[in-house]
Specification:
Number of strands: 3
Strand order of the largest sheet: 1-2-3
Number of domains: 1
Structural class: alpha/beta
CATH architecture: 3-Layer(aba) Sandwich
CATH class: Alpha Beta
Distance between the termini: 28 Å
CATH topology: Rossmann fold
Largest sheet: 3 strands, parallel
């Protein structure tokens, strides 16, 4: 519920801006998106709702030069990795051709900079996946 609430709060913020030119990014965790873990149905549904909201916002706000995109990273900090049971973590990583999760600063941050900059001025309504090749084997 928190994630959807945050997304709706962001919608209200962007729709009330006077200058309207902006970039809005959401994140969608790839492990849930591709159904690797049991017991995450509610979380997966919330992420898909955010992706749908993103496409709708991109359509409605394009006229105001607001770009709305989603990043679907397969990235984790060390503390996030430690929170996952070692057996589950290994099961997940077996499916990754690069055999590692992405690093948020090295692998994801450059994409965020790109999506918030002028080079992505014609991108909106997209889900950009940074998956370490996992989508090729799913």
């Amino acid at each position: 519920m928190v994630e959807k609430r945050t997304a709706f709060d962001a919608c209200r913020f962007f729709s009330s801006r006077s200058d309207r030119a902006a970039d809005w990014l959401e994140a969608s965790f790839v492990v849930v998106r591709h159904g690797y873990l049991e017991g995450y149905a509610g979380y997966a549904a919330a992420k898909e709702a955010i992706r749908s909201l993103t496409r709708t916002a991109a359509h409605e706000w394009g006229q105001f030069n607001i770009h709305v995109n989603v990043i679907a990273p397969a990235a984790m900090t060390a503390s996030m990795m430690n929170a996952i049971d070692a057996k589950k973590r290994e099961m997940i990583l077996e499916r990754f051709p690069l055999k590692r999760f992405g690093d948020p600063e090295k692998d994801i941050a450059p994409l965020v900079v790109f999506l918030c900059g002028p080079a992505s001025g014609y991108m909106t309504g997209n889900t950009v996946s940074v998956l370490g090749g996992v989508a090729m084997v799913v």
